[in-house]
TrEMBL record:
Domain named STAS: residues: 7-118
Domain of life: Bacteria
Stated name of the protein: STAS domain-containing protein
PROSITE patterns assigned to the protein according to its UniProt record, in alphabetical order: STAS (PS50801)
Listed Pfam families: STAS
């Protein structure tokens, strides 16, 4: 039997947060693959948060809106919080005009604010590295 084909959407791990981004519209097959892969990663990595960056999308249609809503619901059931970050103003306006709601989906203005909301903070490090920092 063939192993499932990974989605074309990269999923990175930063501590206990998974970070991913939608670079373009998802078709039905890609959306299902992405959803399966992301939910599997939440469990496998013990993620408590997921950031989905949509700043590259010019359009979020009803299919993508439903996918994001379903992902947020699945993640909550698995104990993780989902934040969708970087929505463009035109996309938000279109969603409202079409009456599409992202029920249960938290949003942030950008990825940095989304990561902060998930409790992830970058710490300042000296250019000399960890060994130097440990001696201080």
């Amino acid at each position: 039997m063939n192993a499932p084909r990974p989605s074309a959407v990269p999923i990175l791990r930063l501590g206990d947060v998974l970070v991913t981004g939608l670079l373009n519209e998802l078709d039905d097959t890609s959306a299902l693959t992405f959803t399966d892969e992301l939910t599997e990663r939440i469990v496998a990595d013990g993620a408590r948060g997921v950031l989905i960056d949509v700043s590259r999308l010019d359009l979020i249609d009803s299919f993508v809106a439903r996918t994001l809503t379903e992902l947020a619901t699945m993640a909550r059931l698995l104990g993780a919080r989902v934040i969708v970050a970087g929505m463009r103003p035109a996309v938000a306006i279109t969603l409202v005009e079409l009456g599409l709601q992202l029920k249960g989906v938290e949003t942030a203005l950008n990825a940095e604010q989304g990561m902060h909301a998930l409790g992830w903070q970058q710490t300042a490090r000296s250019p000399r590295g960890d060994a130097y920092d440990a001696l201080r």
